[in-house]
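Objective 1.3, modelling of assemblies. Example input:
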Amino acid sequence: MEVLFSPDLGLIIWSAVSFVVLFLLLKKMAYKPLLDMMKKREDTIKTSLEKAEETRSEAEGLLGEYKRQLDEARKEAQQIIEQGKVVAENTRQELIQKANEEAKKILDSAQGEIIAEKEKALAEIQAQLADLVIEAASKVVQKSLDKKDHLRLIEDYTTRLRDLA
Amino acid sequence: MDPLHHFHLHPIIHLPHIGPIDLSPNMAVISMWISMVLVFLLVYAASRRVSMISKGVHAVVEVLLEFVRDELVLPMMGKEGMPYIPFIATVFFFIWFCNLSGLIPGLFTPTSNINITATLAIIVFFAVHITGIREHGFFRYFKGWVPKGVPGFLFPFLFILEIPSSLAKPFSLALRLFANMFAGHVVLLIFLGMIITYKSILIAPFPVLGAVIIMVLELLFTALQAYIFAILSALYLSDAVHGGH
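Predicted structure (tokens):
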């Protein structure tokens, strides 16, 4: 048991020297780059995370803005379509009305023309009838007519009249 | 067979005595040097390969350093402990490798010798008090040993009472590490000694199995004891830095 607790100055000195030398060497040559790199990596990760969070919130903002713009555009498009429909309907109504009016006008003028033509024809008929009557009368005067001649004459005039009409 | 026989140290290289001091290196010293060189090479190699994406030896050392920082220094000392990471890390690595060296056949466990554990504990003791004096100044640091509000006449008594408490810390550090490493090896030697003592092929498998189990446990204890020594060192340093006692 004595061996376990007997002091050994040589061992004490060697262990103290070994530890101190190791500590000084590592402190001077090795720990700094390692600890600096650990710190740098942590800082980089922290910055990256912060940046990512920033970008995410920015992207979320942009997405909201785009959604809002899209909604607005949709509404606007709907409005334009509605307006177009109204304008088209109005134009259609206007055109129909105008066409109706035009047709009415054409009809009226056609009717007027027909009446005028009719009147003109009647006047012509009347004039020609007078001529024919005079002609007939002159023929009657020139020649005595029997019943058969009368009928033929009448039929002849009627046919001519029909042709004239 | 004497299990303590293994713990007798004999000089490997004979050096002349300097007064009462025999600096002739024995197996404990050689093992300590091997541990020291291995720790240095490992950490130094890692420091030469630092990169943002750690790999190989750098990744391994960085994990260990992160462990020292996040599990030993920061919980015990807080942010003020950052400058002490190199010291605590050296304590941890040195003791761990010294403990491990005992598991290699032919080498000796330096930490199973009280002289070495006591030296390490004394180094921690001095580091703690030097840190305390440097942080608070000589008088303020020692004044901080006695709780505030104590009547003046009680001050010397309480101060004297604090001295053994202060000395008990390195004592317990040294004894704990020594006892654990020593006991582990004694149990291992007893198991292995049974093979030689009984000289029977029927009995031999049991001590071998026992030795293997103890060896696995020892592997765990090497890190555990280094961790305990380092975490207590960090705790004592924290007391010195924060002025508590």
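The CA atoms of residues 177 and 225 of chain B lie 6 Å apart.
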